[in-house]
Amino acid sequence: MKCTRCKALACVALPSHHSGFCKDCYPLFFTKQVETAIRREKMFTRDERILVALSGGKDSLALMFELNLQGYDVTGLHIDLGIPNSSEKARKKVEDFCDLHGLNLEVFEMEKWGLPIPDVKAHVNRPVCAVCGKMKRHHFNRIAREGGYDALATGHNLDDEVARLFANTLRWDTAYLSDQGPVLPASEGFVRKVKPLFRLSEFETANYAFLKGIEIHSDPCPYASGASFTHHKELWGELEHRSPGQKFQFYQGFLKKGKPAFAGLEEEIGAELAPCSECGSPTSAEICSVCRIKKAVAESKAKAAA
Ligand code: SF4
Ligand code: ZN
């Protein structure tokens, strides 16, 4: 196959775009998709400060690399979860990446904050990933809000978005369907959330990271259950294989036709919000659920030690 742009030998075939690219032209395709996402969805401008959530995986590092290349004012945020034999490796990848490219980085340590994820696993009677995800979202938003950032960018790609949309649709979860999308506008206590990679698949992002020589953290988390959307992603992989372009059509169709039909139903998610008396994050109770979990774990540890 020849490169659609320069006619050299292509190294990446993209059936969903009826095209293929060589190693020099592929990054231009990637850049264009990110530019289009930011422009069409009005995600942010070059005058705004963007906090980028960096896990150390291909998506978040590729996103940071690309936004910096495009001249945006970006700072990385890594959350060190404190998981033995895992978190230190992810953190090292992120720190090395930011050092190499001269990028600003903030690191937040769950251990220092008082609740490393192993303590959640040992003391909270809920699936560890559900609580870990909640903690990460909480701190991303809190740190972005306290740091006065204009937006929080995450590396969610098209596969992530389609898998989540599919899961929400299977449950007809109207409240979540009403606010799923590449941009979640700022509201009281919440910063704007954006997903500039939503037009690109996991495969496309992985290719970009590889061609740019980005060293990524790819070891699975030792606590991963494997359940999180994996099955739905496999199903969509099969559909996409049979009919290239299906994933993007499904997601775009939702944004244009489905999402407006659910508008206004987000109120179902929560009641009136006020700042948490402990951490200032928006909550419908006096103390937010994350601070409540932290307190409960501290009590459980104290009891176990007594
Ligand atoms: Fe957290 Fe679960 Fe992800 Fe591990 S797999 S980082 S515990 S959400
Ligand atoms: Zn709180």
From TrEMBL:
Q: Which UniProt keywords apply?
A: Transferase
Q: Would the keyword Transferase be found if you checked this record's keyword annotation?
A: yes
Output the superkingdom of the source species: Bacteria
Domain tRNA(Ile)-lysidine/2-thiocytidine synthase N-terminal stretches = 50-219
- Name the SUPFAM superfamilies for this protein: Adenine nucleotide alpha hydrolases-like (SSF52402)
Asked whether the UniProt record includes Transferase among its keywords, one would answer yes
Q: Where is the 2-thiouridine synthetase TtuA-like N-terminal LIM domain?
A: 2-26
Q: Which residues cross the membrane?
A: none
The record's listing under NCBIfam families reads: TIGR00269 family protein
Under PANTHER family, the record lists: ATPASES OF THE PP SUPERFAMILY-RELATED, TRNA-5-METHYLURIDINE(54) 2-SULFURTRANSFERASE
Q: What is this protein called?
A: tRNA(Ile)-lysidine synthetase
